[in-house]
């Protein structure tokens, strides 16, 4: 039960990151590495402000705005300077490492006994606090995103992801829409980072490493569960995907895997998930071929039978 | 020249791979005035410059030299997005003209706002617009009026091309560009879409440039015909003369103008039936 609850609490925070990654990954069709810099950026802002006794909600908001600024930088590099998307992310990510160190002043900030966004629910256990705040935030984010993508601007943004040429021909400012998505995406990712720091009780300079792999795994688990969904329902499956992912991790740790080996496991699991469409295809093809071989065997048997008949008649 | 010109092109030159040995002078000093309500068909062999001309007008290709004026406004240095306010376009590939994962209604809503500001504070596909979209779809006679919420990528190429045409007229453009928009369709669907094109152009009184590979179609539709060859306009007929034009006439005109015999191969390709 404890494991389930803590997986849900962790999964809710990760799902905010996964939703952010989903925006660039599925709407713009870009795997944006900025995520791995924006996540610790949100954590760095939130942790250093909270350590200085700032309002935790304000600190979290600043973290999110920082992420949006990082998204703006990547978006500008990608759309205005036409730097390929993968390199854009790596450039911003690398630059952010120094910026995050500057913000934190050191590699690690502890948040023991500080007031965090979870403190409002202090009468509940730590896990329950995170679940309450996480669920509230996820609900608000989902409602806002669904609303946004149904506005004129949101519709234009979705069209840009689908068909930039057609969008431009209909007067959509393609680059601006791409930048908007970049900013929304990295804002959410930094928000997840800010919450994670408060939930874990510390911010660390290296906490972003491997996070995009976790987010992508959550997205793909959601997509494997149910295929072809509308945007709002898709966000729901991502949340479920993130929780399932945390359960898998909890199971792996319970089985006695060394936490130091976890990232290797993350990479392996995502590889398997990404290979699933190929595997599904192979299974389909080999089934079809097996059935066809039986079909051909029947045809052969019939032909042989007829030939024999002819031979008998000739006699 | 009348003064109700919609499109004026002055000494338009386009080069590909300029400064290399592969340099091509794709458009060689095109001068063209299209007046209000003209339906111009454009023919020419491969590499004649038809698509280059259309891309230059739409803004897809930056202009190397010359001037493009649309409805009295110099748009030479405007990009595709800026020109979208006045120009609507249907591409050759049905996939190009619509956003595949969006529904029919969403695609139409986007097109209905062509060239306008996309507000954060207005609904993208307002419920109130649906009757209008349904009404428009009914004109296609393809039974699409009940499929407003279907993902457009699930429709056939012909259906999508018909919708793209309709989308181009939801917000009446100053100029409609059709770039071999039936070339990727089977002959029967192609004929249907062409018929629909003609109907829409007539009803909405749209100034139109239509590229086609098919000489018959070029003669049958429109009230002016241009033939391009090696980046130049070599034939330009309109009115009476255009009405009585036949394919042999056209070939003779071409041969006279370009002073080179069109080969049988080209003729076969051009007739393409």
Give an overview of the whole structure:
The complex is a heterodimer of chains A (315) and B (273). Chain A has 315 residues and is an all-alpha fold. Chain A has eleven helices and two strands. Chain A has helices at residues 2-27, 35-51, 56-79, 85-104, 126-149, 152-162, 164-169, 174-200, 211-225, 231-254, 262-314; strands at 108-110, 202-204. In chain B, α3 (104-112) runs parallel beside α5 (157-170). The longest helix of chain B is centred in the C-terminal third of the chain and has 18 residues, at 187-204. The radius of gyration of chain B is 19 Å and the shape is globular. In chain B, 41% of the residues are buried. The mean pLDDT of chain B is 88. Classes of the chains: A mainly alpha (315), B alpha/beta (273). The interface between A and B is medium-sized, with 23 and 36 residues. Chain A: One of its GO terms (molecular function) is transmembrane transporter activity. Chain A: It comes from Schleiferilactobacillus shenzhenensis LY-73. Chain A: This is ABC transporter permease protein.
Explain briefly what this protein structure is.
The complex is a heterodimer of chains A (315) and B (273). Chain A has 315 residues and is mainly α.
Keywords, please?
heterodimer, A: 315 residues, mainly alpha, ABC transporter involved in vitamin B12 uptake, BtuC, 2 domains, two-stranded antiparallel sheet, 2 strands, 78% helix, 2% strand, B: 273 residues, alpha/beta, Rossmann fold, six-stranded mixed β-sheet, four-stranded antiparallel β-sheet, 10 helices, 34% helix, 23% strand
